[in-house]
Design goal:
mainly beta, five-stranded mixed sheet, Immunoglobulin-like, 10 strands, 2 helices, 14% helix, CalX-like_sf, 155 residues, 38% strand
Length: 155
């Protein structure tokens, strides 16, 4: 009798719980973020993480994530160098384009930073990048910045 009662109770729970209509809100927006800002811990007192590379690395690739529906055409996203978190000199320590393309039907793009081999100068310089978005896609407020620390060996 207990087994029959248990089975009947389970059947009733399944029947009544499966018929509940659920109206979940759907977000229709679109944002971009740096993958490293999502998966790495931020610096103390800052909202962005720091990636340390040697000045001999050549190229640093940073993944940019599209949060939202895929686009039917390529999206060009602007990014900029933030002066207050940057001590590296453009053209001397690094070069970068300032835009990243997220291909149609994709959720990812890649920011490429070319790090110049400045030789054995000692110390390090920092480069703070910030995603700016475009007219249709904004930048995430919490994950839109990443700092690259370029180390230079001592002479």
């Amino acid at each position: 009798m207990k087994k029959i009662f248990s089975l009947l109770t389970l059947a009733l729970v399944l029947v009544f719980s499966s018929c509940i209509e659920q109206n979940y809100p759907v977000w229709e927006g679109a944002l971009v973020e740096f993958q490293d800002a999502v998966v790495r811990a931020p610096l103390a007192g800052q909202k962005y993480p720091r990636i340390t590379v040697a000045n001999t690395v050549g190229t640093v690739s940073l993944q940019v994530n599209l949060i939202g529906a895929h686009r039917s055409s390529d999206e060009t996203i602007a990014y900029s160098v933030v002066p207050t978190g940057t001590t590296a000199v453009a053209g001397t320590d690094f070069t970068t384009s300032g835009t990243v393309t997220i291909p149609a039907g994709s959720s990812f793009g890649t920011v490429t930073v070319n790090v110049a081999n400045t030789g054995r100068l000692g110390g390090s310089v920092d480069l703070l990048l910030q995603l700016d978005g475009n007219a249709a896609i904004g930048a995430s407020q919490n994950h839109n910045q990443v700092q690259i620390r370029i180390t230079r060996p001592n002479p």
